[in-house]
Amino acid sequence: MPRELSLNEIYKAAQVLKSLLRPTHLIEAPSVSNDCSIFIKPENLQVTGSFKVRGATYMISQLSEEEKARGVIASSAGNHAQGVALAAAANGIKATICLPAGAPISKVEATRSYGAEICLVPGVYDDAYRRAMELRYEKGYTFIHPFDDPLVIAGQGTIGLEILSEMPDVDAIIVPVGGGGLISGIAYAAKMVNPDIKVYGVQATGAPSMLRSMEENGRVALRSVSTIADGIAVKQPGELTYSLCSRYVDQIVTVSDDEICAAILHLLEKYKLVAEGAGAVSVAAAMFGKLPVEGKKVACVVSGGNIDVTIFNRIINRGLQKSGRLCTLAVELMDRPGQLVIVSKIIADMGANVTAVLHERTNSQIEVNDCVLRISMETRDGKHIADIISALEKEGFKILSAE
Length: 403
What we know:
The chain contains 15 helices and 14 strands. It is α/β, with parallel strands linked by helices. A six-stranded mixed β-sheet has the order 1-2-10-7-8-9, sandwiched between helices. The relative contact order is 0.12.
């Protein structure tokens, strides 16, 4: 039977992990919010690019010699797979990872590179999990749960100890939430050391399983989840993690995919940090004023940086749009010479940079003698866009939409 979670267990985990982990010192991030002092805990810079290696390493280190000899198994298409693979290799034991056959090649190969045996399973994550359970009983492997295990939670809780050690006067910690292992460990560690610290969780709007569970006072299983933050797209929190969050987490909020994209862009541009969607939700919550942290000293855990580079460009564009750095206006024009010149001059005089122009004559929403000009431009922020729209309207142009 696994041991109970305790503060001593988390301190023990910190000692065990010391030789493997990469230090992730707090980074001051004043541009994230004007309302509070933000510091980033950059677990995206951790070995394997995620905090997940902490819990996996600690649990594997506590296995008996007999269990180590049999090996471990996990099911994951992301950070947990890589964490288990590296931890197993560091302990000299066999690891088998079941992944859905459609998992990105980059993630499959990253997991393989740490020495794990890969088992690709037709279907989705649930199919990979079922196959992992079958192999667990067939081969006698120890299953390394991604979040709902006290030893895994203790490993993740070392992040809380590190934040408190580096910044003892921290008022609040903001943490991404999927299954709940990370926030359970951090909240437990923080509250045991200083009960006055606030611990806030952040989920994606399209995957609010822990939020719903806490609202309804019992674990809720969502029918489906949909978010770019795939690392926290969990349908149901764990039993232990739900119990710990109910006792030690002060509040959970959600952020939209657009807000997540804006946070990814901000971290990249201002602090040269690459964060995946799940990792950036804590910063998104601070950026968009989702939590009562005005005037407080706040640590935001950026939990991982293993972003899928094939969609990176789309995420950046969404982030630019959300932060008012890209805009496409649909302007109704009278179809006569000189109108485009006038619009272009107004935009140029306002200091925006036009990147694309599309002239439409067949839009059914306009008058027969009119046309629609779709003009894309680079702008400074939302106020800049509003000023451009105001200037165009002042000259008599009708704005049909602004995206």
